[in-house]
Amino acid sequence: MTDPKKPDQNISDDDWASAMSEQEQEETAASSEAADGEDEDPWAAAMAEQQAVEEEASAAEEESAADEAPASEAKAASDDVFRPLTQEGGATPSRDLEMIMDIPVKLTVELGRTKLTIKQLLELAQGSVIELDGLAGEPMDILINGYLVAQGEVVVIEDKYGIRITEIITPSERIHKLNR
User: Fold this and answer.
1) pLDDT tens across 9-55, in order?
2) Taking CA atoms, which of 27, 60, 63, 176 is between 20 and 30 Å from 41?
3) CB count, 10 Å around CB of 131?
4) What angle do CA 111, 115, 117 make, to 5 degrees?
């Protein structure tokens, strides 16, 4: 069994049993002193108990350090648990991509933008026309999760709108478009 705060330290059941019995003895001694009418500060008792536990832990740590095998003989657990990150064969990259293939993303086609005041917004009614900064015939922006990735043109296929990708945006063009 190991201490969760010190995973490399081995603690035997005997160590636990002796620590528990020692703690019980301290508790019974403290309760008998309190029963005798001796008014001891509970904070001082708690601090003394904590110090005793810390001293016991450091003694157990020194003892276990002496019992451990040399570091050269120790084998890293990570070799058994985690596979190395080397590319062995061509199947590994495709398997890694398969893990993300089912993650949904939000695709948005942006016709254009404009800024309005609150007054103009409140004056809008059915049939109002809002002027956008996009020009007629200009490619539409295609956004994935809010990031510009491509541009395209609107197409109609059987009573439904679609978008035909005409250009994939390079990183430098993405930065330029963000300033718009």
Assistant:
1) 555 567 777 777 888 887 776 666 555 555 567 777 778 888 888 88
2) 60
3) 7
4) 140
